[in-house]
Write a structure and sequence with these properties.
Layout: E1 7-8, H1 17-36, H2 56-68, H3 100-112, E2 121-125, H4 131-138, E3 142-147, H5 150-163, E4 167-171, E5 186-190, H6 198-211, E6 217-224, E7 229-231, E8 235-237, H7 247-254, E9 260-262, E10 287-295
Parallel strand pairs: 2-3, 2-5, 3-4, 5-6
Antiparallel strand pairs: 1-10, 6-10, 7-8, 9-10
Length: 297
């Protein structure tokens, strides 16, 4: 029987010897990011503040930043959304910026998805300047990352210039990719699809299928079993058509184009475990999940 890889998140995965090795490897990258002051986003999608020098000019710059900064909304369990019983994973260097569940996403798609090598061309859909796209590029393949945020695109280009990684960043819509047909060996999208309206999810999947080679795999992670979804540009949305709350929703959203089939085990499994909290007191916990889609043909 094949391993169940299309499933919801399990914290215990990162506590295995294999999981701990990956945690150590990704934490080493975190150390480099901090040491070299690379503009890598946090799990919130924010870039690090520039380091302020202890000079009159530097202190004036800090004062201006503080005066301009808006009041942040209160989020339960901030910055980790785990609630009062949140617990990190041993070995994670900076859990505030990159908590354990983001480590799980990277670990799961990299160890359960297709094996990659430096000869491959990969698409990162919606994760420009993230720790994941940096990790992917650090392994040696040619990585092309797309995002609608021009600030993150410039940050991604800066990361490539300063590291020498074969990393290319573009301001580009996932539903209108400016790449040739069958251009990529495989693709990744880390916690992006749940932020798209249902129609946009279908359009993005259709476009990614177009630019993938036959047999190429799209590795996706997403928020699962949430009370609602945070749609890009629209805020929290509770319309049933956009929700990812059960197995049927997963099939409807990710296999509805007919262009993909499940890679690995032939069905999605909900393990029933929940770790994260919605930004309101009364909402039930939710979790993340991963699905691996192989382009037909």
């Amino acid at each position: 029987m094949s391993e169940i890889i299309n499933r919801s998140m399990d914290r215990e995965d990162l506590l295995t010897p294999e999981g701990q090795r990956f945690v150590h490897e990704l934490s080493e990258l975190q150390t480099r990011v901090e040491r070299e002051r690379l503009p890598v986003t946090s799990w919130y999608g924010g870039l690090p503040e520039p380091r302020v020098e202890l000079t009159p000019q530097g202190l004036k710059h800090l004062a201006r930043l503080l005066l301009r900064r808006p009041m942040a909304p209160k989020i339960v369990g901030a910055p980790n959304r785990g609630g009062d019983d949140y617990e990190s994973i041993p070995g994670i260097r900076d859990d505030d910026r990159h908590p354990w569940f983001l480590f799980w996403e990277a670990y799961w798609v990299m160890t359960r998805g297709p094996q990659i090598d430096a000869s491959m061309r990969l698409l990162d859909a919606g994760g420009t300047a993230s720790l994941f796209s940096s990790y992917l590029a650090s392994l040696g393949p040619e990585v092309h990352s797309v995002d609608l945020n021009p600030t993150l695109v410039e940050a991604g280009k800066d990361i490539a210039r300063r590291t020498g990684w074969n990393l290319h960043s573009y301001s580009m819509d996932m539903t209108a990719l400016e790449f040739p047909d069958e251009h990529f060996d495989h693709a990744y999208s880390i916690c992006v699809f749940e932020h798209l309206h249902a129609e946009l999810r279908r359009a993005a999947l259709t476009e990614i299928a177009r630019v993938l080679k036959p047999g190429g795999v799209l590795c996706i992670t997403f928020d699962y079993r949430g009370k609602g979804v945070a749609l890009a540009g629209q805020g929290f949305n509770y319309d049933r058509e956009n929700l990812l709350q059960n197995v049927e929703d997963v099939y409807r959203h990710f296999l509805g184009t007919g262009l993909f089939e499940l890679y690995g085990n032939p069905e999605f499994i909900d393990n029933g475990k929940s770790y994260l909290v919605w930004p309101t007191e009364d909402a039930p916990k939710y979790t993340f999940a991963a699905i691996f889609l192989q382009k037909k043909g």
